[in-house]
Amino acid sequence: MPSLLDVVSSRLATLLPSELRSHELTKLLAPHQHSLLLSQRRATLIVTRVRMFAFLFAILTPLWGLIDLMVFTYPLWPGLAACRLMACGAFVCLLLFYRPSGNLFDAYRAIAILFAIPTVFYVASHIMLGGHQLTQFSAAVATGYAFLPFVLMAGLAIFPLTLLENLVLASVLLLAQVAVGYLSWSTLNWPSYVGAFWLLVLIAGVTALASLSQLAFMIALVRQAIRDPLTGVFSRGSGEDILQLHWHAARRSDQALAVAFVDLDHFKPINDMFGHEAGDQALRDCTRKMLEKLRGSDSLVRWGGEEFVVIMPDTDIEQAQIAMRRMVEDGLGFRPDGQPLTASIGLAERCFDCVEDQRQLLELADQRMYLAKSEGRNRLCTADAPLGASA
Ligand SMILES: Nc1nc2c(ncn2[C@@H]2O[C@H](COP(=O)(O)OP(=O)(O)OP(=O)(O)O)[C@@H](O)[C@H]2O)c(=O)[nH]1
């Protein structure tokens, strides 16, 4: 009979996002476990949403100035109007000049600017309103200003953020609320301030859930979009993106970047003699074997049919040869007749081969793979001459 603890933990497990696989759950905690592609797509989405938010606020912020004009007296309303116009200008600049670059730090900066604008506006307007005697009607409108932190906190829900990122951003907004309490210490209505603070904490909790759910969907969608459905390794389109990202990173820091073109030998007879399903199974087994031997930082891409590309960042030509030999040393699985499945591999490296761009790097690896084929298959070719059988 299951213990109470087992029942509770199995019930709690059903609360976890079902669209994620168990090994993906840690990706909800912090961004350091995200793949390059996920980070890139998330950064792009965050900046796009920052710009949407900025667009909305650039319209709504000056509009409310008309209400201020009707209820506040001189010189309070021109002061508030100036604040609103400056905030509107800052939102417009954010909208016009910030473009998605795919870089996560650019995305963080965009969120920081987006939230800094209304936070500064909130603190400044609070100081202005605190320095004036308000009548019943204008006091009611002034109370509306106190809702800005709630709007900002709720706004976090539109971003696919990790728990850590949520905590940092929510803490900053809560600290701004603390700062406002400190500035109006002497006149503070404590019960309503504490009530409002607690409400803000509740909204932060709900927002974090919304934001994490978005991230979970995004992780699942990106996985589906970038993976080959048969083998589960990267598909060609995402492989091209990965190679481009690694190429730029390697060039910036003048690091090695190796690429191997792997073509399985005599694959057609498997399909012809044993059927397509047997061919599919051989492809699945073979990719599993390759993945077992590759480093976590390497990317295995199904380039097409029975052709694969291995992208090895920060790996020089000698290390890449060792990695490829290790990958094939226990074989790549078996053909349905029990014979070992072999591959012809062409290898190229950015610094060793002095190539100009990632396309040239890939072409060179492809040419060397054909050389390995023409020299008898089941071998690795690094430069102009293949390096013997059994890769
Ligand atoms: N079962 C299965 N077969 C595939 C898949 N994609 C490509 N193939 C087969 O892979 C075979 C590739 O054949 P070829 O290009 O002639 O290459 P090969 O027979 O491996 O010959 P060499 O590369 O010269 O050693 C074709 O029969 C394709 O139908 C797939 O997803 N599943």
Structure description:
By secondary structure, this protein is an alpha+beta fold. It has two domains: 22-225, no CATH class; 236-389, Reverse transcriptase/Diguanylate cyclase domain (Alpha-Beta Plaits, 2-Layer Sandwich), CATH 3.30.70. 62% of the residues lie in helices and 9% in strands. It has 14 helices and six strands. A six-stranded mixed sheet has the order 2-3-1-4-5-6, with helices on both faces. β2 (299-304) and β3 form a beta hairpin. The longest helix is centred in the middle third of the chain and has 37 residues, at 190-226. Guanosine-5'-triphosphate binds at residues 230, 263-268, 271, 276, 279-280, 283, 305-306, 373, 377. Residues 230, 263-268, 271, 276, 279-280, 283, 305-306, 373, 377 line the site of guanosine-5'-triphosphate. This is diguanylate cyclase. It holds the Pfam family GGDEF. Residues 255-385 form the GGDEF domain. InterPro entries: Diguanylate_Cyclase, GGDEF_dom, Nucleotide_cyclase, Rev_trsase/Diguanyl_cyclase.
Annotate the secondary structure layout.
Elements: H1 4-13, H2 36-63, H3 65-71, H4 76-97, H5 104-130, H6 136-145, H7 148-155, H8 163-183, H9 190-226, H10 236-252, E1 257-264, H11 268-274, H12 276-293, E2 299-304, E3 307-313, H13 317-329, E4 343-349, H14 358-374, E5 379-381, E6 386-389
Helix pairs in contact: 2-4, 2-5, 2-9, 3-4, 4-5, 5-8, 7-9, 8-9, 11-12, 12-13
Guanosine-5'-triphosphate is lined by residues 230, 263-268, 271, 276, 279-280, 283, 305-306, 373, 377.
